[in-house]
Amino acid sequence: MSTNAMRTAIAAVLLVVSAATVGKISLQTATNETGFRLAGERIRFDASARPEFTEGQIMYSAEATRSGLVKWAATPRGRRMILRFNGAEYSVTIREDGHGVGAGSAPQPALATLAAATDHTKTKAYDLILNPTFTLPRGAIPFSSGEPSTPADMMAAAWAAEMLHIDFYARGISLPHHLRPDFQSEWHVMATELGFPYLPHEDEPERPPREWRTIRTRR
Ligand SMILES: [Zn+2]
């Protein structure tokens, strides 16, 4: 085979490989782009909304992130919210950020996403950022029981807190949320279901979007 012929053959092989790769990627995107996504894959849930993680998710995400989701998914509100956001209308991408100032955040989506709240044919995409290394400052809650005491507890609270923001976005409600009585009462129900009835959900006054500064000292 001449050098030129060999080059052509190699190029043809590369072309086939890349076409196959592209086909695979677009197929994955087409089938997996809705629901909850962790470590690049859709999270699977069983009929009772209990997550079943893939090997890749177990390898490439923090244990606290996953066990926090398991814990939150076992609460009535958590289960209901998971089943709703796991549908075709939503896409929630979980990102881990160990350098965040709080336990998590849920950045406000683009205005078009907020405005599409009532358009059930459009997929609304949200980011949920979790900091699995976050620990609550000592004495942050003035009660000895009913506070998150493990990283899994903390992440369960962060899942609940940030998904509540996303739930409000999905209703077309932009920030700020923390001062709303409906937000606070829904948070209280969710936090109580998790076993943390005194866990506040607030931030420093007038602090814009990147939040959850949230779980903070109660004043
Ligand atoms: Zn918040």
Comma- or semicolon-separated keywords:
219 residues; 2 domains; alpha/beta; five-stranded mixed sheet; disordered C terminus; binds zinc ion; two-stranded antiparallel ribbon
Task: Give a description of the structure.
The structure is a single chain. With 219 residues, the protein is of the alpha/beta class. The chain has two domains: 1-32; 35-194, no CATH class. The protein is built from seven helices and seven strands, in the order H-E-E-E-E-H-H-H-E-E-H-E-H-H. It has helices at residues 3-32, 55-60, 63-73, 76-85, 111-115, 151-170, 181-194, and strands spanning 35-38, 41-42, 44-45, 51-52, 90-96, 104-105, 124-130. The strands form two sheets. Strands 2-1-5-7-6 form a five-stranded mixed sheet, with helices on one face. A two-stranded antiparallel sheet has the order 3-4. Strand 3 and strand 4 (51-52) form a beta hairpin. It is globular. The chain starts with a helix and ends in a 25-residue tail after the last helix. Mean pLDDT is 82; it is low at 8-31 and 204-219. The structure holds zinc ion. Zinc ion binds at residues 161, 165, 178, 201, 211-212, 214.
